[in-house]
Design a protein that fits this description.
By secondary structure, the protein is an alpha+beta fold. It has three helices and four strands, in the order βααβββα. It has a four-stranded mixed sheet with strand order 1-4-3-2.
Length: 98
């Protein structure tokens, strides 16, 4: 089983998403957290289950309800690295360049 690591940018994304959801929809905030935990477990077991991101093959893109999670896999270290998480309505290409 692979380990899962969240980069600081991904942690900042999570905190921003949770802050927003907690203001407007507590049920959605709970669901986001639950889904994030479930998907982290899935990635640890099956890191290659999601497709390569067509615009940058370094990343894989996982769909999480209204969000897109971008990650990479280090096979040597058996590590899944979560890079960023965006709402699907955001300009992902622009955000990935930040």
């Amino acid at each position: 089983m692979y380990s899962v690591e969240y980069l600081p940018e991904a942690i900042a994304d999570i905190l921003e998403i949770e802050e927003y959801l907690n203001q407007y929809n507590l049920v959605a905030a709970d669901k986001f957290e639950e889904t994030l935990n479930e998907r982290g477990t899935t990635l640890a077991k099956l890191p290659f289950i999601w497709p390569v991101y067509e615009k940058d093959p370094f990343f894989r893109r996982m769909v999480m309800d209204d969000y897109l999670l971008f990650y990479s896999v280090d096979e040597r270290c058996e590590l899944v690295i979560i890079h960023r998480i965006f709402h699907h309505a955001q300009d992902v290409d622009q955000q990935m360049l930040r």
